[in-house]
Specification:
By secondary structure, this protein is an alpha+beta fold. The chain is built from 11 helices and 7 strands. Strands 3, 4, 5 and 6 form a 4-stranded antiparallel β-sheet that branches.
């Protein structure tokens, strides 16, 4: 993550001068250290087998179906090893990682196109039910980042510490300034998934819960579009020519405009724009809906996944889910432009 942040800075500023063009903050990622870019470290339920890793349970059910033929086909080629479904999933993952690292992988040719489609859906289930709208801790994990976003948008210091926000860092105008033209954060793909859930991007879950026995047609939740390698979430705060103050906001998720209709006060817009005051008001409402203490710390069993659609424990739901350009990209180094630098 640190290297990702450094490479971004070298490209955005200038490889010859970037080390003096901005401030970089490297936040501790360890258990019990508050960090909105690694919120699972302070959300025990997100690390429990039956709740936090429920996506793995759901995905495994599907793997038993879509990899059944692959197992029969490949097992005779291997001696002395029981080729389990889990190992086949590992082989598909190696195809992806080796392709990124080496440019190719021999594992890729072992599977059919249909099995690769099955692998994509396997990841959809894993993300949706571990770090997305189908997990009761997802919105709570993304809450702290949303609170920091609102703080930056309104230039108002955070004064309530009820999430993964770090009161030591976020109370300082050195480590958490509120007057910058651009902010860049770097985190993990699973955290981006939690953040878009906390932001209540309901279009991503519009087609409802994901079944474990087949791939539904025209599904809205596709993890390869939400949190692929090098995923980017960009918030743009825009000023119209006639106004000196920011007037609207929109989000780009991996270069695609995200509808904001799940946010109270934001109406349908072909460019994904929402009036900034309406968005901020909607975020205050959304923040108030998320019960961090309960969803992360309460003693409960995993609810029926069909009843979880916005990343919160079902019993707490009601009917309700960055110019000048303000850019917010969810890694876990925080880069802050030096005042006066462009």
């Amino acid at each position: 993550m640190v290297d990702s942040a450094l490479n971004f800075a070298a490209g955005f500023f200038d490889v010859r001068t970037y080390k003096t063009d901005y401030h970089q903050e490297i936040i501790i990622e360890e258990n019990n250290f508050n960090n909105t870019l690694a919120p699972y470290d302070v959300c025990p339920n997100s690390n429990s087998e039956d709740i936090g890793y429920f996506g793995g349970t759901q995905a495994s059910k599907w793997a038993d179906i879509y990899l059944k033929d692959a197992r029969r086909r490949l097992q005779p080629m291997i001696q002395g090893l029981n080729l389990t479904i889990s190992l086949l999933v590992d082989m598909q993952e190696l195809c992806a990682y080796e392709t990124v690292a080496l440019g190719y992988s021999k594992f890729c040719d072992l599977f059919t196109e249909e099995e690769w489609e099955g692998f994509e859906y396997y990841n959809d289930l894993d993300f949706c039910y571990s770090n997305g709208p189908g997990n009761p801790t997802a919105a709570a994990q993304g809450l702290g980042y949303v609170q920091e976003l609102v703080s930056r948008l309104t230039h108002t210091p955070i004064d309530v510490w009820n999430s993964s926000t770090n009161s030591t860092l976020d109370s300082s105008n050195i480590t958490f300034p509120l007057n910058q033209p651009i902010y860049v954060d770097a985190s993990h793909d699973t955290v981006i998934s939690c953040i878009v859930t906390a932001l209540n991007f309901t279009s991503l879950a519009a087609t409802g819960p994901l079944p474990t026995d087949h791939i539904p047609p025209h599904r809205s939740y596709v993890s390869s579009q939400i949190a692929p390698f090098a995923s980017q979430l960009v918030a743009q705060v825009i000023s119209c020519p006639a106004s000196e103050e920011p007037t609207h906001i929109r989000f780009l998720l991996n270069d695609g405009v995200v509808p904001l209709t799940g946010i109270h006060g934001c109406t349908e817009d072909s460019n994904g724009l929402c009036a900034l005051p309406s968005f901020i008001s909607g975020m205050h409402e959304r923040i108030g809906q998320i019960n961090y203490a309960h969803d992360c710390f309460a003693n409960y069993t995993m609810p029926n996944p069909d009843n979880i659609i916005d990343g919160r424990y079902p019993s707490q739901k009601d009917d309700s889910v960055f110019g000048r350009i303000y850019l917010q990209v969810a890694t876990f180094c925080r880069m802050l432009m030096m005042s006066g630098k462009r």
